[in-house]
Amino acid sequence: EVQLVESGGGLVQAGGSLRLSCAASGFTFNDYAIGWFRQAPGREREGVSCISSSTGSTYYADSVKGRFTISSDNAKNTVYLQMNSLKPEDTAVYYCAATLYQPSSTWYVGPGYWGQGTQVTVSS
User: Fold this and answer.
1) Tens place of pLDDT for every residue, the chain, 124 residues?
2) How far is it, in rounded angstroms, from Cα 32 to Cα 111?
3) How far is CA 80 from CA 21, 68, 69, in A?
4) How many CB atoms lie within 10 A of CB 123?
């Protein structure tokens, strides 16, 4: 059974930090690009960041560059998103996705798997 289990969301004040984790199972981890997209009420879905498990190449949305860092522990089949200097506009449901598309702004729409989402709320 394919599973993407997200954890680490929550409520934080502006300027604070959170670390999201995405634990994957049930598929060949190294075949996929894995990362995060987010969706806030009334806003378009946005690809935040992703990493190729095989090559290590990464993608970051301009809105998070310099603040967020993605990493992959291939031994644990887990991808992490360290989010620093959080802003109220980062508030959204963050979804983990594993897709066959390589890192890009729309990687998450490729064929693959998606998690259930975790809420991140940044208060001002």
Assistant:
1) 999 999 999 999 999 999 999 999 999 999 999 999 999 989 999 999 999 988 999 999 999 999 999 999 999 999 999 999 999 999 999 999 999 998 988 899 988 999 999 999 999 9
2) 10
3) 5, 10, 8
4) 11
Catalogue the E-assigned strands of 1-124. 3-7, 10-13, 18-25, 33-39, 46-52, 58-60, 68-73, 78-83, 92-99, 112-114, 118-123
Contact (CB, 8 A) for 35 and 92: no
Q: Tell me the torsion sign for CA atoms 62, 67, 68, 73.
A: positive
Burial environment of residue 99 by CB neighbours within 10 A (0 to 12, 13 to 18, 19 or more): buried
Whether residue 117 contacts residue 94, with contact meaning beta carbons closer than 8 Å, is answered with: yes
Task: Say how far apart CA 37 and CA 114 lie, in whole Å.
Answer: 10
In degrees and rounded to multiples of 5, residue 86 shows phi and psi of -65, 145
Q: Which two tokens stand for residue 14?
A: 């502006």
